Amino acid sequence: MTASSAFSDSNTAQITRRDSGLIVATTAMPHASSLAIGIWISAGSRDERESEHGIAHMLEHMA
Fold first, then answer.
1. CA distance 16 to 4
2. pTM exceeding the 0.85 threshold for the entire prediction
3. Domain extent listing, the chain
4. How much is the pLDDT for 19?
5. Which residues, in sequence order, are bridge partners of residue 14?
6. 23-59: per-residue pLDDT in tens?
């Protein structure tokens, strides 16, 4: 996949799964002069062991 093929002319997000398993959602906004990036991971406090309680919440506030 090339960078240019990830963008479309509509406001609908294009979802792409990279070889590494990373899922990328992209949308072209030709009228915008800035960009936004968000990162979500499939892990959180539900995955913490008893000795790690609160780590996910702390990392959330550090990001």
1. 13
2. no
3. 4-62
4. 93
5. 26
6. 899 888 888 898 888 888 888 888 899 999 998 899 8
Let me know how long the chain is: 63
| Residues that are catalytic | 60
- As a whole number of angstroms, the distance between CA 55 and CA 15 comes to 30
Look at phi and psi of residue 27 and say left if phi exceeds 0, alpha if psi is from -120 to 50, else beta.
beta
Question: Are 13 and 28 within 8 A, CB to CB?
Answer: no
Secondary structure of the chain in HEC code, one letter for each residue = CCCHHHCCCCCCCEEEECCCCCEEEECCCCCCCCCCCCCCCCCCHHHCCHHHCCHHHHHHHHC
